[in-house]
Every structure is written in C-alpha cells, then in structure tokens.
C-alpha cells in the first residue's frame, strides 16, 4: 500500500472541527460548572450567614482568589490540552503560583501562632468533610467539562482528564468559599488542595476512557 493510500484510508470519515467549536463548547460547560456548583452549595450546605460582614475583610478575598487563580490556570491547561499535540504551557504558572503562595502563608500562620493554636489553624472545624464537599460540588462541572473536551481532539487523554478534573474542582471550590467558615491559610493549604486534587485524580484515571476519539 502506498503512503498516499494509507493516509487516505486513515482520514476516511474524519470531519474537521468548525472554527470556534472550542469556544462554543467551553461557553456551555463553564456556566454549567459554575451554576451547578453554586446551586448545590446553596441547597446542600447553605451560604454562610455572616457572608455580608466577612466579605468586607481582605482575608475572604484572599481565600476566594486562591481557587479562582487555579481555575484560570486549569482553564488555560484544559483548552490547550484539548488540541492535538498541545502542552499545558502558560497554565502552569497560574496553577503553581497560588499553591506556593498559600503554602508560604500557611507556614507563616503555623509558625507565628501560639503552640496550642497551631493544630486548630491546620484542622479548623471541617477538615473531615471539606475535601468531600468540594468533590460533590465538582460533579456538575466534571461532567460538563469532560463533555466539552470530548468533542475536541485531545491526544494526551490522561493529562487532559486531570486538567478537566482540576478545572471542575477549582470552580467548585470558589463556590464552596461562600459556605466554608474556615479563614486560615493553613487550612486551605491542605484541605482545599486535597479537595481540588480528588477530581483531578479521578479525571486522570477516567481520561483515557472518556476522552478517546
């Protein structure tokens, strides 16, 4: 078989993606992820009653900025990995920098706290449930983002699946911030990160199965 014949055989039945397909698919999936996580948070956990007061404090916005920056990085990575042969690229700084900043803040918080306050700063009141709460809120986004990427052409399905999971979980964590009473960077550095990594791990496992094309 000649090379031209082989190329023609392999390309049979393949239709090129229309311009703007990625933007349309993510334009659908991201609102579903955001609205789904927010609605679940409000229905299952409820908005914290002192939100109006705490929203006036810088620490609340710092807490919100942490998963928001991760969501931006995960979105960049997911969009790039949905293309054939692309790499994470510019998504890495957006994903790693906020984690490093929060870890540094956590170390400072723990070191400067009184000895009896160090463990409470790390565990808070909800360490047992926090990661699983984030996992629950990530479910709508997990499904929606995987749908968006499935319709494109990822060639690294495991890495793309992990990025999908991280995007869904970071959006879920932004929504969870409006319920969660924990205001210590030491808490976020462990339990928020664990909550965001769980869907990312599931995405890495399921990516090769769900993102095949």
Overall tally of domains: 1
Helix content, binned percent:
over 70%
Total number of strands: 0
* Largest β sheet strand count, sense and barrel closure: none
Report strand %.
under 5%
Give, in order, the helices and strands: HHHHHHHHHH
Which class do the helix and strand fractions yield? mainly alpha
Coarse morphology: globular
The CA-CA distance between the termini, in Å, is 25 Å
Cα-atom radius of gyration: 20 Å
Q: What's the overall average pLDDT, rounded?
A: 90
Counted by DSSP, the helix tally is 10
Low-confidence stretches: 6-15
Can you walk through the features of this model?
The chain is mainly α and 213 residues long. The protein has one domain (33-210). 74% of the residues lie in helices and 0% in strands. The chain is built from ten helices and no strands. It has helices spanning 3-10, 21-45, 51-54, 58-81, 91-112, 115-123, 130-137, 139-150, 157-176, 185-210. Helix 7 packs across helix 9. The model is unreliable at 6-15 (pLDDT under 50). The chain crosses the membrane at residues 26-44, 64-82, 94-114, 134-152, 159-178, 190-211. This is Anti-sigma F factor. Pfam families: NrsF. Keywords: Membrane, Plasmid, Transmembrane, Transmembrane helix. It comes from Paraburkholderia largidicola.
Quickly describe the structure.
The protein is mainly α and 213 residues long. Helices cover 74% and strands 0% of the residues. Mean pLDDT is 90; it is low at 6-15.
């Amino acid at each position: 078989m000649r090379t031209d014949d082989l190329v023609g055989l392999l390309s049979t039945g393949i239709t090129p993606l229309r311009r703007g397909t990625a933007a349309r698919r993510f334009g659908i999936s991201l609102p579903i992820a955001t609205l789904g996580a927010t609605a679940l948070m409000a229905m299952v956990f409820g908005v914290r009653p002192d939100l109006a007061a705490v929203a006036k404090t810088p620490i609340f916005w710092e807490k919100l900025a942490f998963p928001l920056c991760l969501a931006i990085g995960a979105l960049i990575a997911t969009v790039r990995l949905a293309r054939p042969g692309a790499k994470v690229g510019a998504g890495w700084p957006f994903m790693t920098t906020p984690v490093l900043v929060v870890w540094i803040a956590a170390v400072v918080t723990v070191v400067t706290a009184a000895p009896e306050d160090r463990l409470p700063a790390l565990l808070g009141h909800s360490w047992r449930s926090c990661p699983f709460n984030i996992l629950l809120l990530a479910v709508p986004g997990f499904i929606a983002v995987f749908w968006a990427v499935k319709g494109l052409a990822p060639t690294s399905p495991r890495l793309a699946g992990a990025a999908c999971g991280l995007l869904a979980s970071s959006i879920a964590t932004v929504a969870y911030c409006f319920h969660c009473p924990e205001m210590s960077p030491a808490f976020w550095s462990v339990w928020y990160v664990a909550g965001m990594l769980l869907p990312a791990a599931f995405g890495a496992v399921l990516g090769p199965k769900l993102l095949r094309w």
